[in-house]
Amino acid sequence: MEKNDWIAGGIFIALGIGIFILTIPFPSLDKGHPGPALFPNILAALFIFFGLLLGLKAKKPSVDKPLENSTAAASIPKNIGNAFFILGIIAAFMVLESWLGFLLTSFFLLFLLMKKLGTSAWKSLTLSVLVTVFVYFLFYKILRVPLSPGFLSW
Question: pLDDT tens, 89-113?
Fold first, then answer.
């Protein structure tokens, strides 16, 4: 996996540098206020930082056991279904959010996601409620981002 880590780290570093280059012509604001390049530059710096970390990780010798009977099927991660499940949850959120509303959709999909990934029912229920309420108050009440009320519309 060291070779893959080197490649991925290099890609992230290249993306970070590319983002920095693309944000050079962005305008700056008066009185030292952050301009439109602030967040892309923060992301670029994070890409470069984590790309370097990944490269350093690849440099360290691996203590993993060697695979016996290595085949192409053995190189596929066993939890690939979880990645596809998460993509399905994202797609379901985009479809259901306008009809069910943000609160119900977020709660149900977070609960399903946590249950699928092995969290206990009580912990999934509690965290789903807390995260949904936190995100709702942060975005809807504080940042004033309009969120779909769905069929409840109260």
Answer: 999 999 999 899 999 999 999 999 9
